[in-house]
Amino acid sequence: MDGFWAKMDELGVDRNPYRAGFSQLICVSETDERAEQEYLDHCSYFFNKCLHIPSHFMTAPGYRTRRSAEFAIRTGQPGDLAAAAAEEKNWKTLTERGFVIGGSPDTVAEQLIEVAKGLRVGNLHALLQIGSMPHDLTVKNITLFAEEVLPRLRKLWADEGWDHKWWPKGAADRNAAAV
Asked: Structure pTM?
């Protein structure tokens, strides 16, 4: 994100973290150890079986400028990251390298806050169903994330006074009216 924020500075645009977002594979369980037991096989399946995409198909035609394509070639394609993740088959490496954020609600919340602040992003695209996860484990993951992790993330940027100017205004009004 350093290049993105440098460009925003160059353009004289504020550093509102809600201008940016990131997608993250997330696995939440009662403990760090239990998360590894419940999710490792599904994460391994995802990285080993689901990411066989040639690097030239990783972005849509016309999506990149020549300059951004040259940068991607110099710094490594998204497919290279997927290949690196597929080589790793242990939980420690997947979590330490950031391919997956997983563990107890405390561990997951702390790591997501660290990543969001490090990247300076205000929009999290939580990927809570991974590979071969069965329905009941997916429901558990979503529930633990929603009830125990998400509340800790909601006001992450509020202390700095940032407002999410891009959030749909009508959505909040409809939800309030429905209650």
From this structure: 0.79
